[in-house]
Design goal:
The complex is a heterodimer of chains A (about 300) and B (about 120).
Chain A lengths: L2 H16 L4 E9 L5 E12 L5 E10 L1 H36 L8 H31 L8 E3 L1 H16 L4 E5 L7 E3 L1 H18 L3 E9 L4 E8 L6 H4 L23 H11 L3 E7 L3 E9 L14
Parallel strand pairs in A: 5-7
Antiparallel strand pairs in A: 1-2, 2-3, 4-6, 7-8, 8-10, 9-10
Helix pairs in contact in A: 2-3, 3-7, 4-5, 5-7
Chain B lengths: L4 E5 L3 H13 L3 E5 L2 H10 L4 E5 L7 H10 L8 E5 L4 H9 L4 E4 L4 H11 L3
Parallel strand pairs in B: 1-2, 1-3, 3-4, 4-5
The chains are: A alpha+beta (about 300), B alpha/beta (about 120).
The structure holds adenosine-5'-triphosphate and magnesium ion (MG).
């Protein structure tokens, strides 16, 4: 087992014994005596007496090499397919692009309408291909993750700024982000995708106002970020489906917008990679709030609560 | 200002046609090659101001074409813009490592392509 994995496991075990954690799951790569790679998933928990003193540890180790191998095959398959899909798509969008910019001369209104419609749908197809590829890499744990100590306020403000440009004054974006927020151990590019999607969703549904809040949570252990909108809200029974692939609960009225339904599942995977949590609260008629909990420092390591999140 | 010359190296004739139409409409002179080998030859004979280079091609792929061109004392100065359906961050890193001056994922946005060409096809 690689030394950094040993360190990670030890840190998790200490948290378990100390009572800061109920359960952890990690996946590690080992080598068999014959030199073959072997993937094992370890799940550990602590059994305590009625006064909370540790009695004994319960550890389960599973051989998941076969699942890993299949994940890898799936990844390769999706990556080849997406390349094969994008190639003809590139020709379609190129041709439409030329027509839109008048290379073939002026278009009638109906032609213009068709050209716009093809362009929109080609863009959507491209987004789906991109999203599927990202999701498949994240799910199989093969995404490149580059975590470092990151100060959240500038990252959040940048995301808010580009959301402002997108909404072009249709909604106001307010922020409450204290400068003294503890730094978090994240991949800024990946986390930026999460912020962008939450803001994109909020902007699509908000009636007039979005509020982004960040605050220390649980002492200084983690940071909570929330994105609130005053849109139509999401019915209670639909909340749990939000993070399912391709799930689109309801389209904003009259907007004609068709997303991919991959945004939130991707967010969930990225957040889980950071051992964080993401969930939604909503009141129909009053609005929706998405909450994001990011543990501070390297404590909550990647894969930590992958399946528990 | 004299017209700039662009060499497109791509094995998809349909896409090449579309790109040619778009670029010619903007006043560029376009020459084309359908695979890496022909591309290397055309880079010599067509003296382009910039090259649009696909990656996945038969015989010599775009990475290799890029490396060979960039190793040449004269041709190495021609800006190379990689265009590829491999659009993930990892692919872009690899393209830049092969010496590409810029990397544009397919589907290309004509507006973005024109902006890039305006920046690179200067000499
Ligand atoms: N702030 C919100 N208010 C109301 N409904 C929401 C909100 N955010 C998400 N939803 C619902 O959840 C669904 C899934 O969102 P998700 O981000 O996964 O996909 P999408 O936004 O439809 O597509 P994409 O992210 O590719 O644009 C949305 O289609 C919408 O029905
Ligand atoms: Mg979305």
């Amino acid at each position: 087992m690689p030394p950094e994995d040993v360190e990670k496991s030890e840190a998790l075990a200490r948290q378990l014994i100390g009572g800061n954690r109920q359960l952890y799951t990690v996946e590690h790569r080992y080598q068999t005596k014959a030199g073959e790679p072997l993937w094992a998933r370890t799940t550990a928990t602590m059994v305590r007496d009625e006064r909370g003193r540790p009695l004994y540890g319960l550890v389960m180790v599973e051989d998941i090499s076969e699942r890993r191998r299949l994940d890898q095959l799936k990844d390769e398959f999706i990556s080849i397919v997406s390349h094969e899909l994008r190639t003809p798509l590139a020709t379609v969008t190129g041709a439409i692009d030329n027509m839109q910019s008048g290379v073939l001369g002026p278009l009638t209104d109906k032609q213009q309408h068709y050209v716009d419609l093809i362009s929109r749908n080609a863009e959507r197809l491209n987004k789906i291909i991109h999203g599927l590829l990202d999701l498949s890499r994240l799910e199989s744990g093969r995404a490149r993750v580059d975590r470092r100590q990151v100060s959240l306020p500038p990252l959040l403000r940048e995301a808010i700024q580009s959301a402002r440009l997108q909404t072009a004054g249709r909604v106001t974006l307010e922020e409450s982000i204290p400068e003294g927020l503890p730094a978090v151990h994240i991949d800024p590019d990946l986390m930026n995708e999460v912020f962008a999607n939450l803001l994109d969703n909020a902007a699509r549904y908000a009636r007039s106002r979005i509020v982004v809040r960040a605050e220390p949570f649980d002492g200084q252990e983690s940071v909570r970020i929330s994105v609130h909108d005053d849109g139509p809200g999401i019915p209670q029974e639909d909340l749990c489906r939000l993070f399912n692939k391709f799930e689109q609960i309801r389209r904003p009225v009259g907007s004609g917008y068709k997303g991919t339904g991959l945004g939130l599942p991707i967010c969930k995977e990225i957040v889980a990679l950071h051992a964080g949590k993401i969930w939604a609260e909503s009141t129909v008629g009053a609005g929706t709030t998405f909450h994001l909990l990011l543990p501070q420092g390297a404590g909550g390591e990647a894969g930590g609560e992958r399946n528990a999140a | 200002m004299s017209k700039k010359r662009i060499l497109i190296i791509d094995d998809e004739p349909d896409l090449v046609e579309v790109l040619r139409d778009g670029l010619e409409a903007q006043g560029y002179i376009v020459t084309t090659a359908g695979d890496g080998e022909a591309g290397l030859a055309a880079a010599r004979t067509d003296s382009p101001n910039a090259i649009l280079l696909d990656i996945a091609m038969p015989k010599i792929d775009g990475y290799e074409v890029c490396r060979l061109l960039k190793a040449d004392p004269v041709l190495g100065k021609i800006p190379i813009i990689m265009i590829s359906a491999k659009a993930q961050a990892e692919d872009i890193r690899q393209g830049k490592a092969a010496g590409a001056d810029e990397y544009l994922p397919k589907p290309l946005q004509m507006r973005g392509l024109l902006k890039t060409l305006a920046a690179f096809a200067t000499a």
